[in-house]
Design goal:
about 230 residues; two-stranded antiparallel ribbon; two-stranded antiparallel sheet; 4 strands
Length: about 230
């Protein structure tokens, strides 16, 4: 009788071989979180979301807020599309994805307006452009439509974190070297300026965002030669 009261942690057997349930943070699931941070980064490897890296990385604060916003939108959108994947007609799947992403973006925008109005004004149209962000739509189409809810959630978090990591790194160097500040506060001492140091105004120009990303790509491929495209 004791055995009948215990709940089994195994799925129904197939051909008399019991199939163990996959742990929530199995090696495969952990890879969904870690791979986008390095070998499968959305910006430096997949070359998606470059516009954001150019547009909002002059300062660290808006880059951080954008990263968190994209993470919230991607995680929620991936979960919703995964839940609906068997109900969405193939012919209108892109429309459904756009509606889901647009709804999440509007929600995030309203939250920013309520709790971080100054940053919301600074980001202006770029929050709305999350709707057409290649990374968001790409993961919905390539992953959430064919995988379970938990895996889709991890995939959304991982790719958004990889995207945000690059934005934050680029913004860190651009704000520090361009204005001597981080989060709007001066971090380079006045004594350094008195010695003749001058902020590099080029770092505040849009092309320097792409150059900084290019340097990061060069470092990444120097460390991992497998990422170098072969002719």
């Amino acid at each position: 009788m004791a055995n009948t009261n215990k709940t089994s942690e195994k799925e129904p057997s197939i051909l008399f071989v019991a199939k163990e349930k996959e742990p929530l943070f199995s090696k495969k699931n952990r890879a969904l979180l870690t791979d986008p941070m390095d070998d499968n980064n959305p910006i430096t490897v997949q070359v998606l979301g470059i516009c954001s890296a150019l547009a909002i990385t002059v300062q660290l604060k808006p880059a951080l807020v954008m990263s968190i916003s994209v993470m919230a939108v991607m995680a929620a959108s991936n979960v919703i599309i995964s839940l609906l994947r068997n109900l969405i007609p193939n012919r209108i799947r892109i429309i459904v994805q756009l509606v889901v992403v647009a709804s999440m973006v509007i929600l995030v925008d309203q939250v920013l307006r309520a709790f971080a109005y100054d940053v919301s004004k600074e980001l202006s149209i770029f929050i709305g452009l999350i709707i057409t962000n290649c990374i968001v739509m790409g993961r919905l189409e390539a992953f959430a439509l064919g995988n379970g809810v938990w895996e889709s959630f991890l995939d959304g978090i991982g790719n958004a974190a990889g995207y945000g990591f690059i934005l934050i790194v680029v913004a860190f160097f651009r704000e520090l070297l361009g204005s001597g500040k981080l989060f709007g506060m001066q971090v380079i001492p006045d004594a350094v300026y008195e010695m003749g140091y001058v902020n590099n105004g080029l770092m505040l120009l849009s092309p320097m965002a792409l150059i900084t990303v290019g340097v990061f790509i060069w470092i990444q491929r120097s460390r991992n030669r497998d990422l170098i495209e072969k002719n």
